[in-house]
Design brief:
Helix content: 25-40%
Radius of gyration: 42 Å
Oligomer: single chain
Structural class: alpha+beta
Order of helices and strands: EEHHHEEHEEHE
């Protein structure tokens, strides 16, 4: 009695044996299909066809890098103004604490402080058109206007906002550094002996002294050089340019 060879099907339900070419009777994995919560079939991500090429990791839509969107409006930077706020808070805290202590002492049966009694008597006797009353009211109005000005203006005049290339990034340029960069470009112009650059919010004032070349030629070169420098600064609101050139009076 001979034993079946290794890999030979001997059962009654045995399928056909694999041929020599490996095609007939070969097993092939079918893609599994899963159902989501809504009942719609969805392909198993782990199972796929072995005939098609595998997808590269960078080919998926989630891996593609989206282009950066242009930034929004580049406004001025706001100052925190810690020193005025701290001084005002300390003065208000001291005045309120002193007044609260005096009121609590009066409620407890003690006499009011002498300064509060003298102030109350003085205010009761003075007229509204008194000089000291008008001076005190004017001082209070000026302090209030100063506080409103500090609250409504951004401050930080020495920090110039730059153009926003990204929505979540804000950049600023120091005013003195920008003026120094423009001055370095101005002194490279042939014929310029000395130059002064003042950078304001809306205008760049260039005052140059020339010791040779025609003044019109020096002025036109300064317009081109400093104008290009202003564009390269990348400011949100490029200032205008004002150039003045004069001849050197020094005798060589």
């Amino acid at each position: 009695m001979t034993e079946p060879a290794h890999g030979e099907n001997t059962g009654p339900h045995a399928g056909p044996a694999a041929g020599a070419d490996g095609v007939h009777g070969s097993t092939r994995r079918l893609p599994a299909v899963a159902h989501d919560d809504a009942g719609a079939p969805s392909a198993d991500p782990a199972a796929g066809s072995s005939d098609g090429p595998e997808a590269a990791p960078g080919d998926t839509a989630g891996d593609t890098e989206q282009p950066a969107r242009p930034g929004g409006r580049a406004g001025r930077f706001w100052s925190t103004r810690r020193i005025p706020a701290a001084l005002l808070a300390l003065v208000g805290l001291g005045a309120c604490g002193l007044l609260l202590y005096d009121i609590a002492a009066v409620r407890a049966g003690h006499r009011a402080m002498s300064w509060r009694r003298s102030v109350a008597d003085d205010l009761a006797e003075r007229r509204l058109d008194d000089v000291w009353m008008l001076a005190g009211a004017s001082l209070a109005v000026l302090i209030g206007l100063w506080l409103l000005l500090l609250a409504l203006t951004p401050g930080l005049r020495d920090l110039l906002p730059m153009r926003r290339q990204h929505r979540d990034v804000r950049a600023g340029l120091d005013r003195d550094a920008a003026a120094l960069a423009l001055r370095d470009r101005a002194v490279e112009v042939p014929g310029v002996q000395s130059v002064r650059v003042r950078l304001k919010r809306r205008k760049v004032a260039v005052r140059a002294v020339s010791h040779f070349r025609e003044l019109d030629d020096v002025r036109s070169d300064l317009d081109a050089s400093v104008g290009t420098g202003i564009e390269e600064l990348g400011l949100a609101k490029p200032p205008g340019l004002s150039v003045h050139v004069r001849r050197s009076t020094a005798k060589g």
